[in-house]
Amino acid sequence: MQDFKTSSSRRSLLKAAGGLALASALPRTVLAAQEPERHFDPRPGDWKGYEVTTKVALQRASGPSTVWVPLPSIDTEWQRSLSNNWSGNATKAHVETDPHYGARFLVAEFDGSAPPLLEVVSRVQTRDRAADWKTRTPGTEDAADLRLWLQPTDLMPLNGIVKKTSLTITKGARTDEEKVQRIYDWIVLNTFREPKVKGCGTGDIKTMLETGNFGGKCADLNGLFVGLCRASGVPARDVYGIRIAPSAFGYRELGGKPAALQGAQHCRAEVYLKQHGWVAMDPADVAKVMRMETPHWIKDPDDPVVAPVKRALFGGWEGNWMGYNFAHDVRLPGSAAGKLGFLMYPQAQSRGEAYDSLDPNAFKYTITSRAL
Fold it and tell me: Which domains does the chain possess?
């Protein structure tokens, strides 16, 4: 597999604007016969209630330990975060809020007298989303609030190669809608899901562009989408969450197994358009369907399996997913790990040493859900 690390490949990238793919640089496989087009068309409807339970049994803990669990902190037209309750043998437990982005998380402290046990139960309501592109429904956010979603983060700088790439992709676009469409199409055509990446990836978009290595997972691909939108002047944000139910449209890779959701974490995205308000986006899931939904790697985004997903995820998403927060560069109080690029996984430490939240052998937890 090529990794696009030559300078000539990077120059090719900057020329690949407005929907020109680097398909020739991607690995090729023999494709199976085309399947009939499938159906994927989320539409706003009734709210659905879910109870999501996270259980942590901290292994090899000795002495004082701390566990941090992200809590759903989003109340919007597509999610209602209703309640959070917890139990276990923590000596102290309280909710903290990130001062910059409003992410909420439980901080549970253990004194070491017994193996740490924690159970967190969150209740939410969610529903499908789909933008009505024919009807103008102006957003209500004011300019001061939107400035937050135009700022760089540690892993999402908006200058240098990020700015240059964004301007190349959107050259000639007359509206924000056109800019977003071009960036979305560019992500679908030029990036790909790389199953070997741990967790959801890191979201280090500068390194992706400098190396020309466009393989990653949702935090990488949707992070790159958000960064390119911000660099073009369009407010955008990542939404960090977890799949909590199977897809109602039969797509295996676009749903979660309620009995075992660890590993079901997924980052989505939103853009703010003056004539429509906050609009759902998820080019990373298009890449996931292309790579993972069938036994063969689908390279054509207009393939019958992929096409309905590509259409629907520009402006919509399915409500079988719970959002935790929009936060970047999160500092957990008392954590020895320093800033986190994002908060989507439970975190823990014992005697000041952080556990690897992506190593199931070192840090064991379970997440389950049930419909209410």
Answer: 7-17+134-323 (3.10.620), 49-126+325-371 (2.60.40.2250)
